[in-house]
Each structure stands twice: as structure tokens, then as C-alpha cells.
Automatic annotation (TrEMBL):
Organismal lineage: Bacteria, Bacillati, Actinomycetota, Actinomycetes, Kitasatosporales
Pfam families from the UniProt entry: CCG (PF02754)
UniProt-recorded name of the protein: (Fe-S)-binding protein
Domain Cysteine-rich: 3-83, 125-209
N-terminal signal peptide: none
Transmembrane parts of this sequence: none
Annotated InterPro entries: Cys_rich_dom (IPR004017)
Naturally occurring in which organism (per UniProt): Streptomyces wedmorensis
Top-rank taxon, per record: Bacteria
Amino acid sequence: MRVALFVTCVNDAVFPATGVATVRLLERLGVEVDFPSAQTCCGQPQFNTGYRARTEPLVRRTVRAFEGYDHVVTPSGSCAAMVRHHYPRFGEEAAGLAPRTYELTEFLVDVLGVTDVGAYFPHRVTYHPSCHGLRMLGLGERPRRLLEAVKGLELAELPGAEECCDFGGTFAVKNPDVSAAMGADKIANALSTGAEVLCGADNSCLLHVGGMIGRQGAPLRALHLAEILASTEEEPWQ
């Protein structure tokens, strides 16, 4: 099977290791991965802020970049949700990309039909379900099923898991005090589990809570789910 990786601009600019991990994971499962170099921002920040006219050129560029692929895979629930739920507003051509776009855990569970991907990660982990994946994509138990199958991993239940971490893109800039307070609650809940790692499937959220963890000096690491699933006994992820 051949797929296109939609790495997203956040991962490309700030978390390139997540893109590398996604490719390593998919190739280990026998998937041929292409990276269309014409891809750029999907337009979500502009669209969410109300700039539809500035969003449209980015939508058109993204659609052209992924022409000819039956499956487009992204390690980002928020960007997958943008394509699936909002691209149809930009016409028939853009709407055609929506059903071909999958968030990574959806692709693994629903298309490849796997939950045990051969991963090894001997750490105590707690999982935060990001809002777009939880509410817009309905990822449900897919990420947890994948984590539960990882050899050596101890999955700890996160109190208030479904509460927003309050990054919300531009919301964190416009309402920094509320954003910081909700992020602090998320970190406190994660620390209460005794986990070494706070895992998520969307690096925009992990950027927010990870930055706060760093400032607090908390004994906790924020890590994308793809990086855990890419780790094996032979090639452990750092």
C-alpha cells in the first residue's frame, strides 16, 4: 500500500521527530510512504480566525499536493479535522480530499486493521485525548487500544482526560491567563498518575502542555503517540 504523509506545518517546523516516527512506523508495517513536497499549511489557523479568503489558496494548494493518493495520513487530529469537516465548504474538489484523509490512529486501526504494531516502550504513560480528535473525528478508544498493545508500557488513567488542555491555537494568545490555568490543571492531573510520559496524538496540544511542563521543571515528558509506536526493542525511540 502506498500513502502520502501529510506531516503538518507544526510538525515540520517544531516537531520533525514526529514525522520521522510516523514514517518509520508505517514502513515497518509494510506501507510505502511518499512525502509530497508541495504541501504546506492546511489553512486551519486562518480558517479558525475567520479569514476565509486567506484560507482558500492554502486549501487549493493542499488538494493539489495530494492528488492521486487513495490515502493521506497525518499525525494530527486537528489538521485531519480541518480537511474532513471544513474542506467541503470550499467546493467539490476540496471535498474530494476529505474522505481520503486519515488521522494516524484511524489509519492504523481502521485501514490496516492493527492495534499491536510491534512497539516496545517500557515506561508509565498517561494519554490526553485532544479535542479535535475526541470531538470532531471521534477517535474514541483507537489511541488507547494502540497504547495498550505496546510491550512494556503501563497505561495510567488520566483524571479529567476529556477536559481541554486549552491551547486552542489563537485562543492561547488571546486568552493567555485562562489558557495557562487550564494547562496547569492538565499537568497536575497527569502528575497525579505517577506517569513518566504525557502522551497525545496532536503536537499543538503537546506544544502547550510541554512548554508549561518545562517551565515548571515537572518530572514529566510530553511525547507524541507516533514516537511511542515507532519505538521497538531493537530500535528504541529516544
